[in-house]
Amino acid sequence: MPQQEQDQGQTQGALKRIFLLIPGILLCGVVTIIALGVQAAEERVFDHPYIEALVVAILLGMAVRTAWEPAERWRSGIAFSAKQLLEVAVMLLGASISFAAILASGWLLIGAIAVTVVIMLAVSYGLARLLGLKAKLAILIACGNSICGNSAIAAVAPVIEADGDDIASSISFTAILGVLMVLGLPLLIPLLKLTATQYGILAGLTVYAVPQVLAATVPAGIVSTQIGTLVKLVRVLMLGPIVVALSLFVARQRKAAGTAEQGPAKAAAISPFKLVPWFIIGFLVLAALRSFQLVPDIAIAPVTKTAAILTVVSMAALGLGVDVRVLSTVGGRVTAAVTLSLMLLLGLSIGLVHFFK
Fold first, then answer.
1. What is the rounded distance in angstroms from the CA atom of residue 42 to the CA atom of residue 263?
2. Which residues contact residue 135 at a Cβ distance below 8 angstroms, ignoring those fewer than 6 apart?
3. What residues does each domain of the chain span?
């Protein structure tokens, strides 16, 4: 009887915790629906979304947070959406990855993309730190500029345990420059006399999001669009190794801190499953299943769409948790870090494309 009462109490406690999450999740859902509607309107007018739904969601969430501070009953659901739902979204993205597709693009181009990403990660992080930004914010900016903009920031944030203010800062300014890149990059075709192949590689290396690559390359023709998309996808796939490396680094830092506090004799061993977050393990497992064709093609689109929607919900939650006054204290430095990093990436990429005629 006592065991039954204990089980019943645990069930009631779990139901109560779920019930407390509902208001905040619903609020994030409303913001998400509006953001997706804005993106759909852009697609109807311009054929491609210049500002993605996840950017609209975080900006709209910040606007709501500025006008109204959520009470306690909203906060648990908002926090759940910002962290747990984002982790699920990152895991689901693994189902859309095929290791065979990476190898098919050619070792020279893969190597060039990988080297560019690694160099820019180091340079962007160093610039951000020199400008006085915190380490976690510098990592977010470096990953956003070097890999895939907002998606990279969203994926890396839970691994390094970045707070909402840092995520919102990096995404907001990265999004603005991403739109400017889409509008301005085609001007380099006549100025630098780029071929369709060269421009496709340049767009794939420098533009942040896949939809933005399409928007930047469609005016240049189908060859540029195909090559730009391929380069961009290979660049996005660099996110997996980077996230795993960061998770291992963070775990090592935690272990070192624990060892220093407890002493060598009391330091506990850490299993591999604690070194890498559960959602990263899930990402790699799904990617492996996809590579061995164990994930049916018919399931890819729904899984990818679900991951995209969950990411937008998480961005809405992050926006709802951001105090705009915090952004104003780092705005100038973040803008400088993102802009300088992007200019260096553009210069490096322009030099690289001359090897691919």
1. 58
2. 129
3. 22-353
Would you tell me how many other CB atoms lie within 10 Å of the CB of residue 207?
25
- Is this prediction's pTM over 0.70? no
The confidence score (pLDDT) of residue 211 equals 65
| Three-class SS state of 267 | coil
CA distances (Å), origin 310, targets 27, 79, 97, 184: 14, 14, 18, 31
Distance CA 231, CA 106 (A): 11
Q: 174: helix, coil or strand?
A: helix
| Tokens at 273, concatenated | 């499953």
| Three-class secondary structure of residue 295 per DSSP | coil
- Nearest-10 Cα torsion for 245, 146, 222, 54: 90
36, 53 Cβ separation under 8 angstroms: yes
Whole-angstrom distance, CA of residue 19 vs CA of residue 36: 26
Model pLDDT for residues 170-199, shown as the tens digit of each residue = 877 776 677 678 778 988 999 998 988 899
- Identify whether the C-beta of residue 283 lies closer than 8 Å to the C-beta of residue 90: yes
DSSP 147: I
Torsion, CA 337, CA 342, CA 343, CA 344, rounded to 10: 90
Two structure tokens written together for 318: 């992050």
C-alpha 172/C-alpha 258 separation (Å) is 35
Residues 164-184 as b/e (b if ≥16 CB within 10 A, e otherwise) read bbbbbbbbbbbbebbbebbee
Helix, strand, or coil (residue 209): coil
The answer to whether residues 283 and 91 touch, using CB atoms and an 8 Å cutoff, is: yes
Residue with tokens 């956003």: 144
Q: Is the pLDDT of residue 264 over 60?
A: no
What's the pLDDT score for residue 274? Answer: 46
* 282 in Cβ contact with 47 (< 8 Å): no
Q: Where are the alpha helices (DSSP H) in 47-163?
A: 53-67, 72-92, 99-104, 107-130, 135-143, 150-160
Q: Length of the chain in residues, anyone?
A: 357
Q: What angle do CA 189, 192, 197 make, to 5 degrees?
A: 55
